[in-house]
């Protein structure tokens, strides 16, 4: 056991050193060369967004009047002449502290408009007036203040008031000063709509989400990361699917917010998948899945969900066993829940007409601890859900075979109680490509 920990520490330090060197080289040589071109492209993107917005208000959709939104203007636009470059100590420090460009983030401030990235066919869709209410749960730990606040304001601005039961904000014992009294002060404008919970000790993302969910009163739980920006009509498509079948779990299509420019970029229609390392990855969608009457706007069957951005009926979340409380920090919980949904009678879909932007951070916080948690969580997943196929995982990760993974008896019992199908059924019915990859290797 001691030798395994030493190996993790050694390899972790090497990985951290490589990341450091690559980040510095990449940011120094690439950023300034591409900056002017990117912001010129950004200008055309923003003007296009205004046209799409105008079409939406004149068409079948009526955009809800925003509560707090400011117009995108020169005042909060990240112009190059505002004076940052890739060699600034503040930029480098921010990248290692937060994983993205804090200079641009501060220039954007606490709210902004983002371009409507939906397919044009989505603008013609109609949603029922009476939909379930949603509790939006956002957990954060040492998040950059402006990125966190843009997450909140985007939800407030772009969610119909009658559908938003509450936003539950869970602070997992952050250490940064601006996430304490300053955050309390700025949240006063949302009084009555946001509940702020401060954990007395760091629980990790998984258990922090469970704390938020336990306090929710909405019909549907919607989990978001703390560095997101939701898009127009993001919530209605998710709620509409769940209202028809509470055993369907839905994810928005995740757009990219660039870590250096914070430019919002549309992402193509994809589905979630994973490999035998139990690493999540995006996968292409078969053309036949987009040939129906809804075209590229119809729900996409997805073998797995990404990270922590999804919506689930609250009672179903409790019925199916929530998250595995025995998992640490974060990592692997999305795949574990995905397998449980499919194998235990539910379904998982990505909804292309729901769009949420997400900052793709450029560092791994607390690298050694995170790697250890991900290995631990993956082992719990493998021993509970993969049946005989866990040997395929150990072929990829032989060093983990003797590693401790805690007590899984409660999760094994949950699987029996729910009458879940075998992992072979999952491979045959939901994700046959994974077994095919095993045969090809």
TrEMBL record:
<dbReference type="InterPro" id="IPR029044">
    <property type="entry name" value="Nucleotide-diphossugar_trans"/>
</dbReference>
<feature type="domain" description="Galactosyltransferase C-terminal">
    <location>
        <begin position="300"/>
        <end position="360"/>
    </location>
</feature>
<dbReference type="Pfam" id="PF02709">
    <property type="entry name" value="Glyco_transf_7C"/>
</dbReference>
<dbReference type="Pfam" id="PF00535">
    <property type="entry name" value="Glycos_transf_2"/>
</dbReference>
<keyword id="KW-0812">Transmembrane</keyword>
<feature type="transmembrane region" description="Helical">
    <location>
        <begin position="9"/>
        <end position="27"/>
    </location>
</feature>
<keyword id="KW-1133">Transmembrane helix</keyword>
<keyword id="KW-0735">Signal-anchor</keyword>
<keyword id="KW-0325">Glycoprotein</keyword>
<feature type="region of interest" description="Disordered">
    <location>
        <begin position="57"/>
        <end position="85"/>
    </location>
</feature>
<dbReference type="InterPro" id="IPR027791">
    <property type="entry name" value="Galactosyl_T_C"/>
</dbReference>
<feature type="compositionally biased region" description="Basic and acidic residues">
    <location>
        <begin position="69"/>
        <end position="82"/>
    </location>
</feature>
<dbReference type="InterPro" id="IPR001173">
    <property type="entry name" value="Glyco_trans_2-like"/>
</dbReference>
<dbReference type="GO" id="GO:0005794">
    <property type="term" value="C:Golgi apparatus"/>
</dbReference>
<protein>
    <submittedName>
        <fullName>Polypeptide N-acetylgalactosaminyltransferase-like protein 5</fullName>
    </submittedName>
</protein>
<keyword id="KW-1015">Disulfide bond</keyword>
<dbReference type="InterPro" id="IPR045885">
    <property type="entry name" value="GalNAc-T"/>
</dbReference>
<keyword id="KW-0464">Manganese</keyword>
<dbReference type="GO" id="GO:0007286">
    <property type="term" value="P:spermatid development"/>
</dbReference>
<comment type="similarity">
    <text>Belongs to the glycosyltransferase 2 family. GalNAc-T subfamily.</text>
</comment>
<feature type="domain" description="Glycosyltransferase 2-like">
    <location>
        <begin position="135"/>
        <end position="268"/>
    </location>
</feature>
<dbReference type="GO" id="GO:0016740">
    <property type="term" value="F:transferase activity"/>
</dbReference>
<keyword id="KW-0808">Transferase</keyword>
<keyword id="KW-0472">Membrane</keyword>
């Amino acid at each position: 056991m001691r030798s395994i920990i030493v190996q993790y520490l050694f390899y972790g330090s090497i990985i951290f050193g490589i990341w450091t060197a690559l980040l510095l080289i990449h940011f120094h040589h690439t950023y300034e060369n591409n900056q002017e071109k990117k912001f010129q492209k950004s200008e055309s993107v923003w003007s296009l967004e205004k046209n799409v917005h105008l079409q939406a208000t004149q068409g079948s959709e009526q955009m809800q009047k925003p509560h707090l939104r400011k117009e995108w203007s020169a005042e909060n636009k990240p112009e190059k002449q505002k004076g940052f470059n890739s060699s600034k100590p503040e930029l480098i420090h921010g990248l290692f502290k937060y994983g993205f460009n804090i200079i641009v983030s501060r220039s954007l401030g606490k709210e902004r408009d983002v371009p409507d990235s939906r397919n044009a066919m989505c603008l013609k869709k109609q949603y029922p007036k009476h939909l379930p209410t949603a509790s939006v749960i956002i957990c954060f730990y040492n998040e950059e203040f402006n990125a966190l606040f843009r997450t909140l304001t985007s939800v407030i601005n772009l969610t119909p008031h009658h559908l938003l039961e509450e936003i539950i904000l869970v602070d997992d014992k952050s250490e940064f000063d601006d996430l304490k009294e300053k955050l309390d002060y700025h949240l006063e404008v949302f009084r009555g709509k946001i509940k702020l919970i401060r954990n007395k000790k760091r629980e990790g993302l998984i258990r922090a989400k469970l704390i938020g969910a336990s306090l929710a009163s909405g019909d549907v739980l919607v989990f978001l990361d703390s560095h997101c920006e939701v898009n127009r009509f993001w919530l209605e498509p998710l709620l509409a699917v769940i209202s028809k079948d509470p055993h369907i779990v839905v994810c928005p299509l995740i757009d990219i917010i660039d870590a250096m420019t914070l430019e919002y970029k549309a992402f193509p229609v994809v589905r979630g998948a994973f490999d035998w390392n139990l690493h999540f990855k995006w996968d292409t969608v078969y053309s036949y899945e987009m040939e129906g009457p809804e075209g590229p706007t119809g729900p996409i069957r997805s073998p797995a969900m990404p990270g922590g951005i999804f919506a689930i009926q609250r009672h179903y979340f409790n019925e199916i066993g929530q998250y595995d409380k025995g998992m640490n920090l974060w990592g692997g919980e999305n795949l574990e829940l995905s397998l449980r949904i499919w194998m235990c009678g539910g379904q998982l879909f990505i909804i292309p007409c729901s769009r949420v932007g997400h900052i793709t951070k450029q560092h791994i916080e607390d690298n050694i601890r995170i790697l250890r948690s991900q290995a631990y969580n993956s082992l719990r997943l493998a021993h509970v859900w993969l049946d005989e196929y866990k040997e395929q995982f150990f072929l990829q990760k032989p060093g983990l075979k003797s590693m401790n993974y805690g007590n899984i008896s409660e999760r094994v019992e949950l699987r029996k109680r729910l009458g879940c199908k075998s992992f072979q059924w999952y491979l045959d019915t939901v994700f046959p490509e994974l077994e095919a990859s095993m045969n090809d290797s």
